Amino acid sequence: MDESEFDAFYTASFARLTGQLHALIGDRDEAQECVQEAFVRAWQHRRALERADHPEAWVRTTAYRLAVSRWRRVKLGRRPADRAISALPWTEAADESRVALIGALRQLPEAQRRALVLHHLCDLPVQAVARETGVAEGTVKARLSRGRAALAALLDPDEPVAPTSPGASHA
Amino acid sequence: MPDRDPLQQLASFGAGGPVDPLPATEVRRRGDRRRARRTAVTGVVGAVAVLAVALPAGLYAARDGGGRSAPPASSTSAPTPLRTTIPADFPILAGIDPAPESAAVEDGPGNLADVRICGRSVWPASALDRRAATLPGEESSPTWSRDLLLFPTVSGAESAVRALASGLDRCPSEELVEPALGGRTVDYLHVRVDHDVAGADQTLTWTDDFADGGHDGAITQVVRVGNALAATRIAGTGTAYPPEELPTNAPSVDLVRAMRIFASPESPETAPAKVTEIAADFPLADGFPAQSELGADGYAGPNRTIDPVAIEACGARLPDPGHRDRLLARYESAEDYRTRQLTTYADADAAVAASRAFVEAFGRCPVDPRPDDAGYVSEREVQDLSLGGESWALLDRATMDGHATPFGSTALVVRVGRAVLIEEQTGHAGYPSARGVTELGDRLATPIAAMCAFTVAGCGSSATGAADCTAADLRPGAGSAGAAAGTLFVELRFTNTSRTACALHGASSLQAVTADGRRVPGEGSNAEAFTLPPGKYASVAVRDSQPANYPAGDCRPATVAAWRITLPGSGERIDVPALPGTRTCTKAPHVSLEQWQPVLDGH
Fold first, then answer.
1. Which of B213, B461, B566, B570 could form a disulfide with B509 if both were Cys (CB 3.0 to 4.6 A apart)?
2. Cβ-contact B582, B490 below 8 angstroms
3. Nearest CA to CA, how far is B390 from chain A (Å)?
4. Contacts within 8 Å (CB) and 24+ apart, A2-7
5. What is the pLDDT, as a whole number, of residue A2?
6. Strands B573-577 and B592-593, bridge-based pairing
7. Please, what are the averages of pLDDT over each run of 10 residues along chain B (603 residues)?
8. In chain B, what residues touch A152 (CB-CB under 8 Å)?
9. What span, in angstroms and rounded, lies between the C-alpha atoms of B516 and A59?
10. Which of A171, A56, A16, A113 has the alpha carbon at shortest distance from B13?
């Protein structure tokens, strides 16, 4: 992967990956920092990136693992890095429904949240979600189905939960 | 009622807001700087090995369940009362180098106050005095912290370390629940590491790591000197290190040295400070290209803090035994990363052993048995060169699935006297080529010439500035032999088989090595300086009294297998096989060296 290929890849996917990671971890600033760091590592390890089938998945997974590591450090009482890790709202006028969505996602169990984001936001088919998260396809389907129900309940507790159907647009 | 189905909202989430990415060139620049760096651990191996020589025997007592203790050293000074306060100028960050301005020095509860092992706090709650400091890490470098505590008594400090050790022994792993990760539990492991820091009364080292891996983890090293306990902790490492290569080891040595002020009569002696013998103006960076695409950022050093050269072969780093001093310089440009490393050893034998071990380990791995994690297999080649005393080119070409790739590296290793110079070139420019090897060697001319400072004779003492002749340069042989009036003469010849002239000057010694391995000392001689061109030989005669002249009991004759000469100049040893039937007296020997002279005419 030469410089111009990397630059094109970086420019095309930075915003999208930041959005995906934001949905995954619920913290916008943290998401951008982790995606930024993941791209530095992507260039550093570009040989491995060249051989990866899905370079975006490589960067997204690296960014996600980084976010989890940094979160753990705070939770276990070690001295956090320079900045306090907090859930800051967007700086421009917030979209209420998006804030509600992120808030609801954060309340889900991590496995369900991750499956939902990878499948519905990152557009990965179930098989790709299974590969990225390291579990069986059946497990992914179960997490999607339970996650959908839980998300719906969180966003509108009064609405009866409809029977779930498999993701309509993906195999 | 929600405006939209939440899954549709999720699908159209997009970037979720504005983003502010760094420019792509900056991202690549940061990635390049990381790729060119090595971890700073190999330099530590040498330091620990050198210090081990200075430790009193028996320092490593058997583990007694409470941290490893040193046996009491004999007291050489009058006992002083224990300190009750930490001096204001105590270097809390000793050994952590370099310390950026962002360090936070606090007098609060300290960094280790938050650390728990199986729910119990590891750091004592009360102390006479305490100091703490933290160096926050950057994105891919860990956070360093230091804590220092004073106890009212030495035994109190000692008990605190034992309690910590017991806590670790009782808690090799624990389950932590991570609520925000869905209540999942994960195993968190605590592993003690066997390692003693020179000069500390007690050392206790352990690692914290998640069983499922990841980018985080921690190493903590606690040292006690007298009534003072200090801990160095690195958080965010997540890498396994062998005990002798812990990143905390070298910093702890400097810390313990600073903690001498708290020592009690039982505290062991600290190891001597590292030797600084390479001159400050050694022209190590002479010959680097004058321009770099990174501008001034492309040059670093010469200094002692640049990460040492670390070359791997067949999955293991090439050996780097204990040395005396080491100076480094770096040059970086686009896809051209060069590190120069000058290392001095106690003597020429040590330098020979170190450089040969290094080169041989490289050569023993001509092809990696397994691809690395990116799928590359290195093919390696060693070439002999004719620079300095001994020199080699170590060539590494990365292949993938049997095909050539543009990736590889070139390293030149040059030994002069008791110093070894290595230049490693990586990045695309480092891909091995004959022209690349020649050019790297030409650019090293000035540093190589300056390495005369590490030869027995020093610089400026050989007539034409040629390097000292070494054992590798010379092929030994025996010339004429004759006997007259009870005296035996054997001419020894040393032919310069290298491609450059070399110098012989100064003292040279002689021993006769008998067939059964005994060494009979002889009398050496001094050579007046001369330069030996390639293909010419130096001649020196061995004079010995015939054993037959003496009663056997007075002489105890034995057969000579070889004449062992140390070369005038380099001091290196050469064994010259003796002619069959040569005998010498092993008791009251009379063997000596005559004058050295070059034979420049004829053959």
1. B566
2. yes
3. 35
4. A3/B28, A6/A42, A6/A43, A6/A46, A6/B24, A6/B28, A7/B24, A7/B25, A7/B28
5. 84
6. unpaired
7. 69 80 87 51 28 30 37 46 87 71 55 82 83 70 83 91 90 75 73 84 88 68 94 74 73 89 79 71 93 83 84 83 88 88 90 92 92 79 90 92 86 94 90 93 91 80 69 88 83 90 87 91 84 88 88 89 91 90 88 86 55
8. 6
9. 68
10. A16
CB contact under 8 A, A65 and B13: no
Q: Is A13 on the interface with B (CB under 8 A)?
A: no
pTM: 0.38
Token pair listed for B158: 């000692």
Q: Residue A164 has which token pair? A: 């779930």
Q: Which residues of B touch A117 (CB under 8 A)?
A: 10
The closest of B149, B219, B161, B157 to B191, measured between CA atoms, is: B219
Chain B residues within 8 A of A72 when measuring between CB atoms: 178, 210, 214, 216
pLDDT tens digit sequence for B313-347: 887 788 887 788 999 999 988 778 899 999 998 88
Examine residue A55 and say whether the peptide bond preceding it is cis (omega within 30 degrees of 0): no
B376 CB near a chain A CB, below 8 Å? yes
Contacts with A65 from chain B: Cβ below 8 Å? 214-215
CB spacing of A151 vs B114 below 8 angstroms: no
Contact present, B421 and B340 (Cβ < 8 Å):
yes
Residues found in chain B:
603
Please identify among residues 14-53 of chain A the ones whose CB lies closer than 8 Å to any CB of chain B.
14-16, 18-19, 22-23, 28, 32-33, 36-37, 39-48, 51
Report yes or no: B1 at the A interface, CB cutoff 8 Å.
Answer: yes
C-alpha span between B415 and B437 (Å, rounded): 16
b/e per residue B140-150 (b: at least 16 CB within 10 A): eebbbbbbbbb
What are the chain A neighbours of B376 within 8 Å (beta carbons)? 47
pLDDT digits (tens, 9 = 90+) for B473-491: 999 988 878 887 788 889 9
